[in-house]
Amino acid sequence: MSIDVHEVHETLRTDGVALLPGVASAALVCSLRDALAGLRAEARPMSKQVLYVDGPEPPDRPPLTALMDQWLSPHSIEGPGSTAPAASALRPLIEDLLPGAVLFQDLMLVKQPGQKPFPWHQDYPYWPVDRPDGLVVWLPLTPTDSDSGALRFARGSHRLGPRPVVDLHDGRPQDAASDLGFDAADYEWLVPRYEVGDAVVFLPTTFHGSPATKRNGERAAWSSIWLDPSCRWSHTNAPNHPLCRVVEDGAPVGSISLAGSANR
Question: What's this model's pTM, rounded to 2 decimal places?
Answer without folding.
Answer: 0.95
